[in-house]
Amino acid sequence: MKSDLAKQVMWKAFIAVALLAVTISAHAFSFGRHERVRANGNVILIPQNKITDGKARFFRFDDGGKAVMFFVVRTNDGSYRTAFDACDVCYREKKGYEQVGDEMICKNCDKHFAINHIAPSVEGGCNPAFLQHTLSKGYIVIKISDLKAGKRLF
After folding, report:
1. What is the DSSP letter of 124?
2. Do 13 and 68 sit in the same domain of this protein?
3. Of 43, 95, 105, whose CA–CA distance to 73 is shortest?
4. N or C: at which end does the chain have fewer Cβ atoms within 10 angstroms?
5. CA-CA distance, 133 to 32, in Å (whole number)?
């Protein structure tokens, strides 16, 4: 009888450790896909030649212990789109987006959003929260102040 109780306790401990490992791995994977970027003065500089194949690249800017995550993608017409890796509605779930073809998909509610529609004029609803950028001398330039303005999403 004692050995059955010991087996039950060990089994429950094993399950608890396995669940903890899965949770930690999921969290690490989420941060793992975001390349860390650092300020260059009052901006972030991302080389345009790093974003050429139509695949979204995910980045992370650390501000006072808070990670602000965003992505950059080049559209078929050669323009660049930047947005926070959080949607205007589901940001509290902290799941972000994934790309499938020419769409970004909310990992919380599964809504699809066309990449070429990421723009400052599109606000509200479940879509990527727009992040302002400019282009200069081969770089995508994002102001630190714009990143900090999106901090509330994380």
Report:
1. S
2. no
3. 105
4. N
5. 24
For residue 102, what are its two tokens? 């020419």
Quick count: other Cβ atoms within 10 Å of Cβ 57?
Answer: 19
- 28 and 42 assigned to the same domain: no
pTM: 0.76
8 A C-beta contact, residue 134 and residue 120: no
In this structure, the answer to whether residues 42 and 58 fall within a common structural domain is yes
Q: In this structure, are 59 and 73 located in the same domain? A: yes
At 92, list the tokens. Answer: 């509290």
Q: Which domain, by its residues, includes 61?
A: 35-153
**Could you list the pLDDT tens digit for every one of the 154 residues in the chain?**
557 766 665 665 555 554 444 444 444 444 468 999 999 999 999 999 999 999 999 999 999 889 999 999 999 899 999 999 998 788 889 999 999 999 999 999 999 999 988 887 666 667 888 999 999 999 999 999 999 999 999 9
| C-alpha separations of 26 from 19, 30, 33, 119 in Å | 11, 6, 11, 30
